[in-house]
Amino acid sequence: MALERFDHHSSMEELREDYSKIQGVYASAIREVNARLQTLNDEFSFRHRHNPIHHIESRVKSLNSIIKKLRAMEAPVSIINAKKLLNDIAGVRVVCRYVDDIYRIANLLLSQDDVLLILEKDYIKNPKPNGYRSLHIVVDVPVYRIEGKLYIPVEIQIRTVAMDFWATLEHGIRYKATEEVPEHIGRELKECADVIFETDDRMQAVFKALQQVHDRVDDDWPIEPPDEMSQYGG
Q1: Which one is predicted more confidently, 54 or 218?
Q2: Is residue 193 a part of any domain in this protein?
Q3: How many domains would you assign to the chain?
Q4: Residue 78's domain spans which residues?
């Protein structure tokens, strides 16, 4: 790709051509992150009988979305500028079962020596004013191409099922609104977010209590079968 001045506005034809060149690279970065997350989830499940990840979603930001975001930043629209200014061209959303799982998955991923943390925003400990909660991290991950190894930024949003439920519905309400959402609706959405977070906390407490019960049952289960069961076990 030819080098462009940082302040250069690209034509639509140039944008489409340049976007097609980078789309595959960012898709490769997403596949790399997804594979690592799935491996961590599988290994944790094997060791602790618990899958911290409920599901994973991902996307490469569309060209229209890139243009819209650059214009909102009042930056000249070009793919060169997008690569310099946008950390979320490649995006992965990890939906976990419990709040503890969010930090567990983030820490396990960041402990890998070739995953480099670029940015972290903790909207769980510090929610947005509208009630939004999620952990956002931007990481550089290695992508191996014919020309060699590249490090590509990927934004990873990690949240619980309950947080994802609220965020999805809240986004839909605001997106479909023909004008600014009234203040009393905003307060109602914030209150719903707080209730959902409290429910998250209670569900996690229930899960931990059940884990302790299962651990006690496992400790009480005999390693060797009693004599009366020997006819079944040899």
Answers
A1: 54
A2: no
A3: 1
A4: 12-161
